[in-house]
Specification:
mainly alpha; 6 helices
Length: 78
């Protein structure tokens, strides 16, 4: 059930089908809009200042976390 930023992050981690909705996001704005479309309620600022950004990057990279994501994070947040 949708909620705030914490619920969004939990759903990304726990629900494989939901995780797939974020596999091809190319920008933070796109990820934010997808979250709103799914009924979540939080601000762009909350998204930018949360750990959920790392989870979105993992989704976009196919679920593989490596050190290059830290470098890519700067490009993703533009």
């Amino acid at each position: 059930m949708p909620g705030g930023i914490k619920e969004f992050e939990e759903d990304l981690i726990e629900e494989k089908n939901f995780h797939g909705d974020f596999d091809n996001v190319k920008s933070l704005e796109e990820a934010y809009q997808k979250a709103l479309d799914h009924g979540y309620d939080f601000t762009m600022e909350e998204l930018q200042n949360s750990e959920v950004l790392d989870t979105i990057l993992e989704c976009a990279s196919g679920g593989v976390r490596d050190n290059s994501n830290d470098r890519n994070k700067a490009n993703f947040v533009k």
